[in-house]
Amino acid sequence: MLALFTRDLRLGVRAGGGALTGVIFFLAVIATIPFGVGPDLNLLARIGPAILWIGALLASLLGLDRLFQADREDGSLDLMVLADDRHFLALTVLVKCAAHWVGGVLPLVIAAPLLGLFMNMEPLAIGATALTLLVGTPAITFIGAAGAAVAVVLPRGGLLISVLVLPLTIPVLIFGVSASYGALAEPDPFLQPFLILSALTLFLAVIGPAAAGLALRHGSD
């Protein structure tokens, strides 16, 4: 599994600079917001956590189409699917999700505090948003793995992945933004939505790879 993780991480880095592309897209989303809402710094600070979450969510969807594509092209995906142990396939998908998150999504979390300065956010809001992104973005990857497994057999499945995955990520987005706002707004709680966000990530860490494994098996029939 360590060899698979290292291999997928290297492939993700080599595939057209996936991490750099995601960070640039993230930056583009954040940079265009002030032109749309105006130069009101107080307004930018209020909507900053939500904008960071939306930008990170959209940037996280960019490389999902490559999650199983390389394995399908070299034939290793067929060997994974033909394995008798279903739990092994789910574990393989989990490792691939971890490699994808480290190579393509973790740089977005690292860049989030810097981009939060563009939104005139307070240090506490920046820290809370970065923490919720660190905990919540793996859930997006696990959901995306199921969508990527469904679309891997299609010739142009990249757009379909976004259509399938985006509605399913709404609960993650809601609790991530709620926890980020709760760190600043005194009546709003931080801990409760943050714990729910953590629970969603743990739940999807089990359900997402299992669903992706089933989709890969049915897609190969």
Describe the structure.
The protein is mostly helical. It has ten helices and no strands. Helix 2 packs antiparallel against helix 3, helix 3 packs antiparallel against helix 6 and helix 6 packs across helix 10.
Keywords, separated by commas or semicolons:
mainly alpha; elongated; 221 residues
Q: How are the secondary structure elements laid out?
A:
Layout: H1 2-14, H2 18-37, H3 41-60, H4 69-74, H5 76-82, H6 86-118, H7 123-151, H8 158-168, H9 170-182, H10 191-220
Helix pairs in contact: 1-6, 2-3, 2-6, 3-6, 3-7, 3-9, 6-7, 6-10, 7-8, 7-9, 7-10, 9-10
Low-confidence stretches: none
What's the β-strand tally? 0
Radius of gyration: 18 Å
Major beta-sheet overview: none
Structural class by secondary-structure content? mainly alpha
Distance between the termini: 25 Å
In helices, the fraction of residues equals over 70%
Q: Number of domains in the coordinates?
A: 1
Give the SSE string: HHHHHHHHHH
* Approximate strand percentage: under 5%
Provide the residue-averaged pLDDT.
84
Discrete helix count? 10
Shape: elongated
Question: Care to give the gist of this entry?
Answer:
The protein is mainly alpha-helical and 221 residues long. It has helices spanning 2-14, 18-37, 41-60, 69-74, 76-82, 86-118, 123-151, 158-168, 170-182, 191-220.
